[in-house]
Specification:
single chain; 604 residues; alpha/beta; Gyrase A, domain 2; five-stranded parallel beta sheet; 14 strands; flat; binds arginine
Length: 604
Amino acid sequence: MFNDIQQIIEDQIKIICAANDIALAALKWTSIPFAGEWGMATSFFQTAADAARAGQGGGKPVPQRAQELAEQVKGQLGSVDGISRVEAVRGYLNVYFETSSYARRVVDEVLASGTDFGRGAPKNERVMVEFCSPNTHHSFHIGHYLNAMLGESLARLTSFAGFETIRASYPGDLGLGVITVMWAYDKFYKGQEPAGIHERGQWMLKIYAEATALLEKKDGETPEDITRREVFEAERREMYKKWESGDAHVRALWQETREWSLAELRDILAMLKIKIDVWFYESEVDEPSRKIVDELIQKKIATDERATNGPVIVKIDELLGLTKDKYRTAVILRSDGTSLYLTKDLALAREKFEKHHVDRSIYVVDFRQSLHFQQAFKILEIWGFPQAAKCYHLSYGYVTLPEGAMSSRKGRVVLFKEVADEAVKRVLAVESAKRGDIEESQRVEIATQIGLGALAYTMLSTDNNKDIVFDMDTALSFDGHTGPYIQNAHVRASAILRKAGGTAESGQPTMFNYSLEQKEVELIEQIAKFGAAVEQAANEYRPMVMAAYAYELANIFHSFYQVIPVTQTEDANIRSDRLKLVRAARQVLANALNLLVIDAPEVM
Ligand code: ARG
């Protein structure tokens, strides 16, 4: 956020070096944490090392030459507004800010930019974040919710960082799992579906679990059991064939049951305030994916073994000249002419690149599909899509409960809706006891914000390579690394401002020309780091970076709240500055929470 000052100094350094025939290496700046004053530093080691390599620099050791350069620059640097002093130490140029001017700038910039504080300049690149792509004929479980949070948070981050961002979803609406539910529904349950959107999802899950049990080989089967199982199996196969050939009855059944899942998905997305821009469906790329196969054969990327009753394959490792197994060989068309999940992803990627002009393509999908995406991205590269280099699989682990893992096959899953309802219910119970002064409808709204905030933070604060063990009590705690802890900082800031009477401080100029307390210093410093955190989280595709930032900011704010009097401050100027600092902190807390898909309540 001090880019302009940094630029002014850099320009001066360039002029100084040019005048002295010094080939200046690119400068990197780091900030100097407060120790009586704030500063930023850059080193001349690279420049000195380059000179030594080129046989210049008089044969002096690099550290000595770097220090000489730092001193030379220091000696010739003119004065810069807001800078109090400059120092040359061990090859570094340290530039210090006038404390009051630094504080003023940080706070004023937040207050002037508001919800835009931290927003990056347009990057002229289009990113597509594909997430929330569950398979239909299933219910929305907590793993899908983790996916939704990662995707939405990432999309908000990339968009805020300056990428043009498109949100896409790609539900899997065909395949054996889908047919299994349809078969069992048609045979045993036709016409009995429950009314509610979410009840239907759970119910399909139950049907799926029953159907897999019926179709599974078991120990100790009697001949009748075996016959019955084989009849079921044949019926399911028959239904699959009919679906493929477009049989009217089966297709209608498919449309009806598929819509149940999609309706539930849309309902949950609305509840989570997620708006998908583009919907792709696996069924819609099935046809295009078959066409791709011929093109890949023609280009000699794929090998056609159908003449010998084999499949069409891509020998990825062989094409790349790799001798060890890495991407292996992938099947892209079965011998019976059906296409695979991978083939459909190739068709989908092409559509993303050619129809939606996507430069960067992010796939938020769990870790089990990691080889699948490595293969897909490699084939795209071999096929000649330059965008393949900017395809990224944002992978994540399981969500488990303290009592163990989930299994759809066994019908043992943790439904998101149940967890969310339970979280809100628990918060509401506490709220109602505590806040009799708030109206019931508002209490429900606040409890929803806190309950969902707690869930979202749990999902985003864990490194996405690790499994999440979800524990409701921990998530809902007002202490530690939780959503409510951060929301509570926002609530406390809001309370201070309310107490001071709205915009009491707004007419006053920002000064900060008093000796700042430690907690004020820390708060200002953390606020100043927001833009860098946005940039890092977006560029590394890691919402966790923002989760950690938000926790740190809340943590500092809570300590500030404990020790710094604000409304009680006697001196009117100091009081006004502190109110502004609180307002700025509140704004940045809100901005950070928004990037984490968490609401920022005013009271709780
Ligand atoms: N429907 C798939 C599943 O539930 C996820 C789709 C991921 N996206 C993709 N482009 N393959 O496993």
